[in-house]
Amino acid sequence: MAAPMTAAIPPNLDVGPNYTLQFTALNPTTGAVDTNVVITSAFLIAANVRGVDLEAAFKVGDIEWLHLPDLEAS
Amino acid sequence: MPDISIRVPGDGPAPHGLLLPGSVELLLKEAKASFNGSGAAGAYLPALQLLDDAGNVVGTFPTDSSVAAGASADVSFFPRGKAASGGAAATDETFAIAYRSGFNAPISGGAGSNDVAPWDYIDSNDGNVDLDASGRTRILAAGLYACNFHLEIYDAVWAAPVWWSLDASLVTGGAGNQLSGLWPGINQNFPGWTDNVGNYEIQLSMLLYANIVTPPEALRWRLMLGTGAGAHVATSTFAVVSLLRLGAPSPGGVS
Hints:
Chain A is mainly beta. Chain A contains one helix and five strands, in the order ββββαβ.
């Protein structure tokens, strides 16, 4: 059973080209990464600032699943 | 433009994330990830990190508390990202009032001889102030208290010039307990002097602060009269004291 937790991030964090967003597990005392912790089911909710075609921008394999607005429904 | 949901591909050991292509810029609104700590070396802090285009960590956003070794967590990251705790329910601070009527202070400068005790009546909204076995006001909960002591003397007879004062002191003297004033933990005096002989009606008030670190603590309230010949309170005196808890004990004391 996984415990639900929350953490604060800055509002409207602008993540530029070639920047990386990564989830990690840190030792509370040393800050060292604990590579024995496995990250699963990671999602991001974001605004596409430049409006580029994300499906084309991400290489195959970089992005497993991308939910774009349903334009037909609008 | 609506926000989009992006799933970070695959599962992987920490750190695990997503490198943005050179044409993509995202305004991150929130993120969520599951941390499987079944193989963790020890307790850990789930965190989201931002790396610049040179691979430098430019932001780390961990949870406030750690996850125990072997345990897992589902973590949501969002602005001001703590679930609203709602805060503690508002509660009333302690308020108590005691009074005594028919208190005829004798002529004396002797300690305790003019003690306004036992009080006739005590009421407290939460029971944190009561009367001890001697009928003195007693504080049962630690805190900083504002104490307002008021005395009305209906007929004071001064046959000779005499001094008088209101006086308060700690009876129990618990560790760290203080009354505000020049002499910590010692009697606090508000003296006066009457030059003229005769009969007077006098109203006296004293406001002080009691910093109670170690309850219970009984408080003594006194009217002190000098030993001038014939000085005494001829008729009924009314005394009232109110105590309002302001909050936690003052770390620096009140002296």
